TrEMBL record:
The entry's keywords: DNA-binding, Transcription, Transcription regulation
Chain ranges of the HTH hxlR-type domain: 10-108
Native species: Mycolicibacterium brisbanense
Domain of life: Bacteria
Protein name stated in the entry: Transcriptional regulator HxlR family
Lineage: Bacteria, Bacillati, Actinomycetota, Actinomycetes, Mycobacteriales
GO molecular function: DNA binding
Pfam families (UniProt xref): Alkyl_sulf_C, HxlR
Length: 219
């Protein structure tokens, strides 16, 4: 089947010709947390078939939005990663996720909810106009998974793995983060009942809470 196009001389239409295909932006969401093997993408996107995932990856490669790379030994695995053109989509996709957060409630039966989705949603809460005092590296421990947030010059990067020299370490679980993201609980509620803990420099913690629009915070 020929790929459909809006056939408009418009930047948005051209972007949607590529990104508007089903699953495409969700693949990019996964790759914004670091390079992924094909099998990693299958785990992160349990609803996509093998053939469709292969097709979408090929389309993104052809558009030079992603590229293949080989991890150094001992892994030596082939992974997919964003190109510079793909990285340019980070802010728009985080903004779109932030817009969608306002329309989310609790997960319904049949909806996928996993740590990667919640960590990305947390990154989407970041306010790029926040104080430069929030600049730094932070670690989020979510269940058995760990993520690193890097904030600098009004930009946020997220990737899987531990952070070196984190200014603050946040530890919580999926249920608590879902409740905070959908407004069912506040950060102070979670701190009070110890379903969320924060370790680190108090000033950095306060700046981080402000950057994610979670103030006030008692530390």
């Amino acid at each position: 089947m020929a790929k459909r196009s809006y056939d408009e001389y418009c930047g948005l239409a051209v972007a949607l010709d590529l990104l508007g295909e089903r699953w495409t932006m969700l693949i990019l969401r996964e790759l914004m947390m670091g390079p992924k093997r094909f099998t990693d993408l299958q785990v992160g996107l349990p609803g996509i078939g093998t053939g469709l995932l292969t097709q979408r990856l090929r389309e993104l490669e052809d558009a030079t939005v992603i590229e293949k790379a080989v991890l150094p030994p001992p892994a030596a695995s082939t992974v997919y990663q964003l190109t510079a053109d793909g990285e340019a989509l980070r802010a728009p996709l985080l903004g779109l996720t932030r817009w969608g957060l306002r329309r989310m409630g609790t997960p319904t039966e049949g909806q996928t909810a996993n740590v990667n989705l919640l960590a990305f949603a947390m990154a989407a809460r970041f306010n790029p106009r926040s104080s430069p005092a929030a600049d730094g590296i932070y670690e989020l421990r979510l269940g058995d998974s760990t993520f690193q947030f890097t904030i600098a010059d009004g930009d946020i990067q997220i990737q899987s793995g531990h952070a070196q020299h984190a200014l603050a370490v946040i530890t919580t679980d999926m249920a608590t983060l879902i409740a905070i993201n959908n407004g069912a609980a506040t950060l102070n509620d979670a701190l009070s009942d110890q379903t969320l803990t924060v370790e680190g420099d108090p000033a950095a913690i306060a700046s981080l809470a402000d950057a994610f629009e979670l103030t006030p915070v008692d530390v």
